[in-house]
Amino acid sequence: MVFSGLSPTDLQVYRFGALALAAGHDVYGPLPVPTGSNPLPFIYPPFAALAFLPLALPSLPLAAVAMAAASAGSLAVTLHLVIRRIWTTASRRVACGFAVALSLACVALEPVRETFSFGQVNLVLMALVAVDCLNDRPGWRRGILVGIAVAVKVTPAVFLLFLFLRKDFRAVRNAVLSAAVVCGLCWFIAPDSTRRYFFGGELTGASGLSGSPYATNQTITGALNRLALPPSWHEALWLLLTGATVVLGVIAIRRADRLMGLILTALTGLVISPISWSHHWVWIAPALVLLGGRALRAANPAALGGVLAVGVIFVVAPHSHLPATNGRELTWTPWEHLIGDSYLLLGLAFLAWNAFRPLARRGVRSPATDTQPAVSSA
């Protein structure tokens, strides 16, 4: 993998935000310009700046290696959880071996390799959510890690929907309380930055990035902005498509077992978010492992072929081969829109398929422990 000269752009922004917080400066004010990039704002909650502080202390190359190691470990942990749910008879050693091997293979996926390239935190957040929601240990207080993930980056709040639909209300409570406690801590450490983020417009997109028509923004909002429709048409279509997606997501999540439901929740959040860069789609890695594993267990070559085809699309990243930047997305032809919105369209199709396919054709299910909502301890 390539780390842009060991100067990952997003990691640099994380470090700038952390150093600003440590110095008592405005985290959301002007920051130094990352090497090889344009000026970029820090758009995460204040707790993220606090959490990134250890990465701001060493040199940038060393921090880049540390972030890459954390991301690689997080991916392996997530895939290990998936593998243990697909092949319940596999020993821990065998599952770990497969997790490492599949993690190496998944680096070929564009969302994963770009997460490494940018020094992004996506894989770490995915692991926090997966460990929290897929852990069956007695006494595990489900929801706490989800709350911490929300405090780092607001978008994992979509997993509260997953916990709610599974009627795991204690986990919802734990997630809300843990996020509130962490954010409250930041209020005492950096009151001005915390106030600006939550009440000064940063949370709602004051940075100007929200809804970007840039090709890598694989969301409903991004796709509509690339069409450059009249405002009235844009708003009507956005309401219709977003509302329909939420309904499809709820239906699909309710019908799914815990593992598939978690992935469907992530997918719902990705497509309805104002902005989901292509490197945010890292949940494709556990999704492909899950679907591929179930296709193998069911001896279904057609399903396995479909999984491989989707994997190829996420390796190739069709949007990256189309005219982009400086508004060139606004001149795409209909075919280019179809190709350039491939992640979004595949995501919507998968949600619809899981919402409406006959239950009798669901294939091989996860262990029986997934068929009923799991209630976490207090």
What does this structure look like?
- This protein is mostly helical.
- The chain has two domains: 1-207, no CATH class; 209-372, no CATH class.
- The chain is 62% helix and 0% strand.
- The chain has 18 helices and no strands.
- The protein has helices at residues 9-22, 46-51, 53-56, 60-86, 92-106, 110-118, 122-134, 144-152, 159-165, 169-189, 191-199, 220-227, 231-255, 258-272, 284-297, 301-316, 334-340, 342-356.
- The radius of gyration is 20 Å and the shape is globular.
- The termini are far apart.
- The model is unreliable at 360-369 and 371-378 (pLDDT under 50).
Record the SSE blueprint.
Layout: H1 9-22, H2 46-51, H3 53-56, H4 60-86, H5 92-106, H6 110-118, H7 122-134, H8 144-152, H9 159-165, H10 169-189, H11 191-199, H12 220-227, H13 231-255, H14 258-272, H15 284-297, H16 301-316, H17 334-340, H18 342-356
Keywords: Cell membrane, Membrane, Transferase, Transmembrane, Transmembrane helix
Membrane topology: Multi-pass membrane protein
Family: Belongs to the glycosyltransferase 87 family.
